[in-house]
Amino acid sequence: MKKHIGNLIFTVLLMLGLGAHAFGQSTSSSIATSQSSLTNSAVSPVDSPVPQDIGKLAQQLADSTLYVELLIMVFAGALVFFMQLGFAFLESGMSRTKNTVNVLMKNFCDLCAGSLAFWCIGYGLMYGANMSGWVGTSHFFPTHLPAKEAGILFFQIMFAAAAATIVSGAIAERTRFSAYFLGSAIICGFIYPIVGSWVWGANHGGAGWLKQMGFIDFAGSTVVHSVGGWCALAALIVVKPRLGRYGPDGTPRLIQGHSLSNTVLGGLVLWVGWFGFNAGSAVSLQGNTLQDMGRIALNTHLAGCAAALAAMAALKTLQKRIMLTVTVNGAIGGLVAVTAGSAVMEPQWAILTGIVAGFLVTYMQPLLERLQLDDVVGAVSVHLIGGIWGTLAAGLFSASNFLSLTQLYTQVIGILTVGAFSFSVAYIMYRLIDATLGMRVDPLQEQRGLDIAEHAEVGYPEFQRDQLHTGAAAAQAIR
Amino acid sequence: MIRAAFEKKLGLEGVQQAIGLWKQHFAEETDVQKNIRPFAQAYSEFIGQPSSKSELALLLISSLHTKLEMLPPDPQPQPRNMSQIATSPASPIASTQTSTAIDATLAALILELHEALTLDSQGSAWTAQFLQTLQASSTVQTLKLDDTQKDAWEAWLRLSQPLNLQAHLSVQQATKLVNLLYVFLTEAIGPVEADRLLSRSVQQVEATPTGRSLSPRTFL
User: Fold this and answer.
1) CB A159 within 8 A of CB A398
2) Can you list the alpha helix ranges (DSSP code H) found in B91-146?
């Protein structure tokens, strides 16, 4: 026993040592080298060159800053990638068992297709030379990128995939896999980058027209979340509700997901990912400094907490029980909302942004149901409504332009134009996909579940042994 | 089974005529072989002309009084499982056998669904819609039943008579019919309840001899 404990302690110490060594190497090697070379005269000039002048030292410090930025950018990009896991958990948990594999496949594959589409076309449209202010026109299929730009591309690929995956949860359980797959690639390669070029472009000359107007969207309440929300809304209108979601008189019927454990786990994973999403943007996007990261992470966290509590309060005002799904959605709504202004507002305003988002998300869901929009995970209320509110809040509570009507006007212009573009293009795209591939599976496939119908696999073979749809006809259908 | 096979050749009316003629004038003779030729002659006169139909009627009466193993062999081997049934065109006799099983299992499933719906809180309102759905959307139009079958089907729908028709549904047709019912159920009582109700009905049918012979899961 003692031997095992000893081995365990040794292993942990070894891992910590290796981690510290790796971190030290990647972040401060230049600084350490410079310091030691200045103080330790015993080291030979060949092994550790003494800087000849202050310019060289400055260069080394700049390099070390770049290394730190790259490290943060890659780590933050990985956290945003981690959000895909959150989406997968959240969406599959809110779907029925018979559609689990399909939801997971959509989350997995939109990331792959979207990443490639963004590298091929999206990056050029978003960050290429943008003299008109409307779209980038260079750097398609980018190669031989400078170190920092490669990091930005990596980080931005994750953003594009996040925007596309918002749609998947909204139209789950009845959408053809191929249709969704194609739609995701187009969102990542075309819709998201064009909007991004207006707000964040460009890296190679010119600037987006909204950026020139002073539109504030620090990490993408509008660019990522509203765009995803608008696309989700268009898809919802085209694909129509699931069978029986609304009664003959239009009364909505609850279709519970199969695992609230997955749902809350997904929500928490998303929350973790959001620290990378927002704080990582300090390095990559807006020219903020590393010093801003702490405030951004703090604002992000506080807004999420406030929104979750506000969602619970909103449920009480609606005289409903405190529901886990609504609370999780409320928290995510707060995180979406604070994304736009997390770098420009003080914590109290981030909390207020979260509170309003929590109420809005909770109140909007029944309104969307009245319109007979069957949004399985509440993506429209969370990402679209949360995104719109967050963009307005960023304009209202910006520390430098507090409660400025001019700034608010700019924010409204941005929200409306992005909405008009994203929704109309997405609607036309989904209509075209519907006319060619078909957006919706047929009722028999919906009855059997998309796991069997589209993938010939089931999510929980042990628990689904008694499932209905294992007959010869189903087997024939999946052959 | 034999009768159903001959119905395909002679038609329902032709079979009834042949059997009626046999029972009326020739059935009293215990030795079938003594009367079989006179019967063929009489049937030929009855239908107005000597034709292959009289030969078929002869064969029909012979078959009805002959042990099964003495019949001509089935041109194709019997299917071993349901997927084989679903995919391969069987001989007329095998097809009839399969269709009978499909009809029986389908009828049992629909009956279970109907009873489950009746027990539902919505009661008769949903039941009436259920029957309307069956009548309007599926069987009569899409399955192309003849008048006799249609009458039998509609009588059964009104639950006034036990289902006793030979609709000769294929697995695909039965699957489509069950799917239409599922769509109705989801619209009427919601998808969660529809899944539960269909699942329960399937399990109950599977517990019966009919369900053990051919599982209703075949149609799902």
Assistant:
1) no
2) 92-119, 124-133, 140-142
pLDDT in tens, A139-179: 999 999 999 899 999 999 999 999 999 999 999 999 999 99
B84 → chain A, closest CA residue: A472
Cβ-based neighbours of A314, under 8 Å, separated by 6 or more: A326, A330, A358, A359, A362, A363
Burial zone of A462 (CB within 10 Å; 0-12 exposed, 13-18 middle, 19+ buried): exposed
Q: Which residues of B touch A476 (CB under 8 A)?
A: 83, 86-87
How far apart are the CA of A471 and the nearest CA of chain B, in angstroms? 4
Interface confidence, given as ipTM, is 0.72
Q: Do A447 and B179 touch (CB under 8 A)?
A: yes
Q: Looking at the partner chain, which of B189, B191, B202 has a beta carbon nearest the beta carbon of A242?
A: B191
Q: Report d(CA A384, CA A375) in Å as an integer.
A: 12
Report whether A309 contacts A358 (CB < 8 A): yes
Find the CB nearest A468 among B176, B189, B217: B217
Q: Residue A252: beta bridge partners?
A: A246
Task: Look at phi and psi of residue A173 and say left if phi exceeds 0, alpha if psi is from -120 to 50, else beta.
Answer: left
Q: What are A400-435's pLDDT values in tens digits?
A: 889 999 999 999 999 999 999 999 999 999 999 999
